[in-house]
Give the backbone structure.
Amino acid sequence: MKNAKYILAYRNPAPPRCRWLIFLTIVCGGMMLCAADAPQLPPLTSASGNPRLPGKFVWADLVTDNALVAQKFYSELFGWKFYDYGNYLVGHSDDRPLCGMFQRPRPKDKPEAKPRWFGYISVGNVEKARRAVTQAGGRVLAEPKKLPKRGEQAVFADAEGAVFGVIKSSAGDPEDFLAEPGEWIWIQLLSRDARKAAEFYRAVSGYEIVENTKSNRVSDYVLTSEGYARGTIRTIRNPETKAQPTWLPFVRVKNLAESVALAKQLGGTVVIEPKPELLEGKVAVIADPTGAAIGILERSEGLAKGNQKP
């Protein structure tokens, strides 16, 4: 995730505000269940002596109403292998754990509530992050919880309702490296006020904020730490759009066109087709069969030049 030039734009297929609040309830309940029922989760890294990298997105969770369907989709699309930890599936790329998945039913009277991915930020102090979230206008969805072998984690919503988690890993964090196909490579926040959102996350995670001043920019701000770009924030330009503030993670793929075609064959949908004007046509946004959106990106040599640090 050290590729500073991966500054992505997308339109999120999120539901209206009332549906979004319903989803926050699903996330909160799901995370509390996960913490209680999955006490033996694997550490974030099996390497010994790894340092913590505050500000880095080191994990992601999917809340879905059909974990079996979602598991099949991601297994065939990205080659992920899943292991059952009791009400919680952990996805691996090769031998490295990448993400979790837990199932929560949609409200019967609100079938439009959508499953969703959200990421976890590495922090040095979870309780300090919790205080910063509430002071900055955010909400606590799942209180800090210590898990054996895992560390301490919590789940929040920022001032605009976008869901994210924080974690203090007991094993240190996965080191900074170029993602291989099937691994997380980027994450972007869609916000109604990118500057305010950037300040919120600076308060919570201590980011340095780099403003993108290019006239043809597709993101407004880059969040950086330890000399690396960790994520980008884009302002929703159209005030009439139904898009809601949310984080969207991206997975690297070998061939974007083939991955888009395979996603369709597996029952997914394409939210944003590849476009030449958007990262040379090497990025797309899809939704899995349960409705959760996720980005996919093919790394080209053109994108690789000069993108090590912001």
